[in-house]
Amino acid sequence: MSGSNSKPFTVLVEGNIGSGKTTFLEHFQQFEDITLLTEPVEEWRNLRGWNLLDLMYKDPVKWAMPFQSYVTMTMLDMHRRPTATPVKLMERSLFSARYCFVEHMMRNGTLHPAQFAVLDEWFRFIHREIPIDVDLIVYLKTTPLVVHERIKKRARSEEQCVPLSYIEELHKLHEDWLVNRTFAECPAPVLMIDADLDLSQITEEYKKSEHQILRRAVDVVMQ
Ligand SMILES: Cc1cc2cn([C@H]3C[C@H](O)[C@@H](CO)O3)c(=O)nc2[nH]1
Hints:
The protein is 54% helix and 12% strand. The protein has nine helices and five strands. The protein has a five-stranded parallel beta sheet. Helix 4 packs antiparallel against helix 5, helix 4 runs parallel beside helix 6 and helix 5 packs antiparallel against helix 6. The protein is globular, with a radius of gyration of 17 Å. The protein starts with 8 loop residues before the first strand and ends with a helix. Pyrrolo-dC binds next to helix 4 and helix 5.
């Protein structure tokens, strides 16, 4: 499949910190018809030598705004990137940026209401002016305790002081957005995966989503 595909079948992979998004994406490396766009954490950890992720975790009140502002730019870049394949899998999105992370930081006072207003205006402007296509959301549903343990085991240095309460609040925002639909518009149908399962068992779960994604990809290609 060659040539640029301006409207690939686009899948967002969403879930809490440590829910296994990177592992899920790696499972799809085996398919040549799928482009994988992983979360640009390395860009957030090195912007002209500055580790914005670390600055944000160390002094959230001072750095949450510039960090989330840069995250928004890097996520927009990913949404807009043309792919040569019929299917595109993205790790997280402008939507989880706004409805999970920015929302949480506003509710817990990390973001000043005026800072939140600026980020929200940017989100609304982008959402209104720039077409962002989403065809499916894969939600890696986890239990806060399970992912908190994983975060400690994964030992990403910046995350070692992340408290369980933060994980629980992010979990609730993901549930309100993707399951309860009480809080914000959901841009596409949601396929839920039980991501508490450990690596040995989760491949079966991935196969379930594989069928959904590839079948729809065929539909897209056949159109
Ligand atoms: C869209 C989006 C992703 C994202 C990740 N993060 C943090 C959570 C993890 O510690 C790390 C990698 O996902 O970045 C954040 O604070 N705000 C975010 N917004």
